[in-house]
Amino acid sequence: MTKNILYALISSILLWLAWPPTPYTSPILLFGFLPLLIAIENIFQSNWKNKGRKVFGVAGLCFLTWNTACIYWIWNASPEGSIVAYILGALLMTLSFYLYYKAKTITKPYIADILLVGFWCSYEYLHQTWDLNFPWMTLGNGFATMPQLIQWYEYTGIYGGTLWILMSNILLFNIWKSIRYKNPDKLKLIPALAIWIILPISYSVYTYSNYAEQENPSHIVVVQPNVDPYQKYSGSALQQLDNLIQLSKDSSKFNTEFIIWPETAIPEYLNEKEIRDTRIFHTIQRFLSNYPNATLITGAETFQTYQDEATPSARFDRNSNTYWDSFNTALAIENSGKIQFHHKSKLVPGVEKLPFASALAFMKPIFAKFGGTTGGYGYQDHPTVLYAKSGIGVAAAICYESIWGNWIAEYIKNEAQFIAVVTNDGWWGNTTGKDQHLHYARLRAIENRRWVARSANTGISAFINQRGDIVKKTEWWKPAVISQEINLNSELTFYTKHADIVVYPFLLLGVLGFVYVIFKSRKRRKATE
Questions:
Q1: In this structure, are strands 322-334 and 295-306 parallel, antiparallel, or unpaired?
Q2: Which of 157, 301, 306, 375 has the CB geometry, 3.0–4.6 Å to 313, for a possible disulfide?
Q3: For the CA atoms of 507, 512, 516, 522, what is the dihedral angle to 10 degrees?
Q4: How far apart are CA 129 and CA 131, in angstroms?
Q5: Using an 8 Å Cβ cutoff, are 466 and 460 in contact?
Q6: Where are the alpha helices (DSSP H) in 291-402?
Q7: With the CA atoms of 382, 221, 424 and 271 taken in that order, what torsion angle do they form, in degrees rounded to the nearest 10?
Q8: pLDDT for position 19
């Protein structure tokens, strides 16, 4: 059993080495699961008792180690939440491989292999859609540092990467079995594996080398104010605003069309109905009067009030006898006085949104008596494209939203011509978290063939072109401003039109496989009683 534990740890190390932001190591993912699959096969072929528990333990060790090593940085922002993230993600990964083992005991090996793909894809999709969502470790994200190899994501999105990785490992595992069990027939899988790996890479390298953007320039300015997120609300709001404006002036020109400030750049709680009456707004208007073509995209915390419980997240204020919602917001402000709003909707579980709040709605009166709530930030069901006076549409994704391919694709379908990511990664400190977040934005650029303008409060701010190349970026924890002539794009990729469609057959496979495993296992257990 010691050897199998070692195999599991080797897999976890390989997967960690392959993960962003480490450069040029992503192809390790194509064989990183092999030691773990060998360990599970060894347990399956053994005469040991409680083999299922041993498989669960070995897989659990692998995924807990890998998952924690890649997202250790969550601890800096939320020690309590990080424990949940470490364990929950690893548990879902482990369950996928445990179900795979159970399938091996009741069906043919090749069927179990196919079901493994369904089980894993189901875990990834669940972790993207439920209230405890955290799709940071979706396998397809692993190629974010090597856009040269994944230009075909414009058709499949990151789930195509997940399928590529899983099937490469499964084919390699079956070749290993043919050698171990001296079954030459399965050596025929070697050409299949070669084609499976080489064909996507060849297509991608060719596309990457020959991709040409259509000329449709727009001048964009990105500002990085570098305000300590733990101290920003203790400082002067006007001083911080003045700093943002001074930095913006360094690169803004008469033809600048967008100036982008980071998440919650405005450190003042704003009533959405009364923003035009604030000193913040009038100061911004004076600044924008010098740039008649410019629209400011900035993060802010805003709120709305209601006479009744208008939304599921609305809170009751006993003093005014009204309801209210707070939002993590992206504002679009013109010098004409027009303001547009997008409310962050992919909220961080536990930090910005109470998971399963709708199920706890019956407890709202109890929470209200204690001054609490069953919600957090308010949200909207669909993203809002923000427009410049010239009609240019921008997908203003707020922090966490940028790791959802299907969410960004919805923006693009609604006429967004480039992507702006406004974020505040300073909560995590100088860790790999900020770098991973930056590289994941490259995936959105490829999927939708849109430039990304990324404004991060403390870094790393960047411009990313339609091939996923980082064209320009800032340093961590330094005030900075960068500008770029980007090319706008109005064409829709296959992925944009049909986001995540590639994963749906495997979700069905995963669900049917789960039902089959449960049914057959119960039937076998009854037969032995």
A1: antiparallel
A2: 375
A3: 80
A4: 7
A5: no
A6: 364-369
A7: -60
A8: 98
Q: What is the pTM of this model?
A: 0.94
CA neighbours closer than 13 Å in the CB half-sphere of residue 290 = 13
- The residues facing 322 across adjacent strands are 317
Q: Give the sign of the dihedral formed by CA 297, CA 300, CA 305, CA 308.
A: positive
- How does the average pLDDT of the chain come out, rounded? 93
d(CA 98, CA 92): 10
Distance CA 41, CA 101 (A): 9
What is d(CA 183, CA 180) in angstroms, rounded to the nearest whole number?
Answer: 8
Beta carbons within 8 Å of 194's beta carbon, 6+ residues apart: none
- Answer whether 506's CB lies under 8 Å from 170's CB: no
CA angle 245, 272, 287 (to 5 degrees): 20
What is the pLDDT, as a whole number, of residue 360? 54
Residue length, the chain? 529
Measured between alpha carbons, how far is 140 from 39 in angstroms, rounded to an integer? 24
DSSP string, 256-269: EEEEE--TT-EEEE
Q: Does 223 score more than 70 pLDDT?
A: yes
Residue linked to tokens 């993590």: 328
Candidates 467, 476, 408; CA nearest to 438 is: 476
The C-alpha atoms of residue 495 and residue 128 are separated, in whole angstroms, by 17
Mean pLDDT across 338-345: 96
Backbone angles phi, psi at 463, to 5 degrees: -115, 135
Tokens of 120: 């894993």
For residues 113 and 31, what is the distance between their CA atoms, to the nearest angstrom? Answer: 15
pLDDT digits (tens, 9 = 90+) for 99-126: 999 999 999 999 999 999 999 999 999 9
Which pLDDT value is given to residue 490? 97
Burial zone of 8 (CB within 10 Å; 0-12 exposed, 13-18 middle, 19+ buried) = buried
pLDDT band at 358 (very low <50, low <70, confident <90, very high): low
**C-alpha triplet 307, 373, 384: angle, nearest 5°:** 65
Phi and psi dihedrals of 163, rounded to 5?
Answer: -65, -40
**pLDDT for the residue 370:** 34
Q: 495 and 409 in contact (C-beta within 8 Å)?
A: yes
Query: Cis before residue 460, ω within 30 degrees of 0?
Result: yes
Q: How many CA atoms lie within 13 A of 187 on its CB side?
A: 6
Q: What is the pLDDT of residue 114?
A: 97
Residue 297 backbone class (left: φ over 0; alpha: ψ -120 to 50; beta: rest) = beta
**Integer angstrom CA distances of residue 380 from 140, 167, 232, 328, 498:** 27, 37, 26, 11, 22
| Residue 318, C-beta contacts closer than 8 angstroms, at least 6 positions apart | 368
Asked whether 197 and 165 are in contact (CB, 8 A), the reply is: no
Contact 36, 7 (CB under 8 A): yes
